[in-house]
Amino acid sequence: MPDVILGPNRYGKAETRLVRVVREGDVHHLKDLSVSSSLSGDMEAVHLTGDNATVLPTDSQKNTVYAFAKKHGVDQIEDFALLLARHYVASQPSIDHARVEVEEYAWERIGGDRPHSFARKGGEVRTCVVHHDRDGRTTVVSGLKDLVVLNSTGSEFHGYIQDEYTTLPPTTDRVLATAVAARWRHASEGTAYGKSYEEVRRCLLEAFADTHSLSLQQTLYAMGKRVLDTRGEVCEIRFAMPNKHHFLVDLSPFGLDNDNEVYFAADRPYGLIEGGVLREDAPDAAFAWE
Question: Catalytic annotation on 58?
C-alpha cells in the first residue's frame, strides 16, 4: 500500500462581523464588514498528532480583527486586509501564507438633521481577497457581488444548437438581466482602492448598458474588456453572471395580446455564465483566485 500523506490545508476564522463607528462630534461614520482569515504553513503536527504548538487559535484571529479596527481604523477594505495578512505572516514563524477576505455592506445616511442615523443600502456588496506569503508575494483582488442589472431590450438569443430536447424559441428581442459577481486583480499594490472600485463599477454598468447583446457571454466579455481598456491598475477580471430569465406570459386565454410587456421573472433554474478577461502580459498569480 502506498504511504498516506497530508494534503494542502489551511484554517482560520470565517465571517467575523465588525462594525466600526467613527465619531466626529455629532457626525458619525459607519463601516460594516465581514472578515474571514485562512492561514497555512507548518501544520503537519497538528493534523498527524494533535500537537497545537504551531496553531494560532481562530479566536485569536477574530480578536486581531477587532483590535486592528481600533488601533488602525478601517478605510479601504483592501488596505485593512493587507494589514491583517502581513501581520499574521510576520508575527508567527509557523505561518507561511495568509488569505484574508472582506465583504463590506454599505449604509447611507437618513437625510435631514440626523447625522448618526443610517439605512442599509440594498445594492451590491463590495468584496476583496488578499494573499500574502513569507516569500513576499502579495496579491489583491477587489470585487463586488449582487450587482443586479437589466436591459429591457437590446438583447437577442438565436443561432444556438437545437437538438431533440430543445424547446426554447429563438428571439431577437428579450429582457437581459443578471446579478453580477465580478472580481478583479490589481497588477501591483499601492492602488487607490476606493477610487478604483468606483471606476471599475462605472465601467461594468456602462458596458452592460452599451452592449447590444447576442449572448450573455458576449456581454460578459464586453464588460471585462471595458474595465481593462479603461483601468490600467487592473490586469485580470473574472465574472459569475446568472441569467435571470424573464419569460413572456401567455395572455391569449384572456383574449389579450402580449407585445413584450408582461413577463414572469423566474428565479430557478437559471443559466450561469462564468468567464475571465485578462491582459496577455498579466503577471502569473495562481493563488490569487483561491
Answer: yes
